[in-house]
Amino acid sequence: MKYSRLTKEQFDELHTEFINFLATQAIDKAEWDKIKIEKPEIAEQELDVFSDLIWEGVLSRAEFLEHFSKNHIFLFQCFDTNVKSIVLKSLVPETDFLTKEGLQWLSDNMFSDTIEMKIGKKDYSEDRNNAIFQLIQQGAFLSGGELFKQINEIIEG
């Protein structure tokens, strides 16, 4: 397995897609129920293959990621060969970017000396999708990139 198995909730959301996936392998509901009972290892393999297919599609389309922690915000824009990052760090320890108040504080203090901003660019050392998956495993989530675009526009003028 290249990525990780989808959660039960994710499988529930993708129920129709999973049925279509099984249908492409000529597996109907009766056959699937039989496989789950008689050949659970085959059922596990099917779940893993489907999970990887879904992840591959999601990761291939991923462009922006965000990761928030108490004092840091990591913003990423993913290109074909590299990722551009904007890292915001609060120099005020009591700031909490995980709260609405913390984000309002950021908005009010974005370009003050209480925010440290670092901009970077890194070539992928491995497969692009795997690199993005690693960021997700570390707590990043897919986004529309609004915050990245706003900050990047101000920086680049």
Description:
There is one protein chain. This protein has helices at 8-13, 15-23, 29-38, 40-61, 100-109, 128-137, 146-156, and strands spanning 64-68, 72-78, 82-90, 115-123, 141-143. The N and C termini lie far apart (44 Å). The mean pLDDT is 94. A five-stranded antiparallel β-sheet has the order 4-3-2-1-5, with helices on both faces. It is built from seven helices and five strands, in the order H-H-H-H-E-E-E-H-E-H-E-H. Strand 2 (72-78) and strand 3 form a beta hairpin. Helix 3 crosses helix 4 (40-61) and helix 4 crosses helix 6 (128-137). Helix content is 50%, strand content 21%. The chain is of the alpha+beta class and 157 residues long.
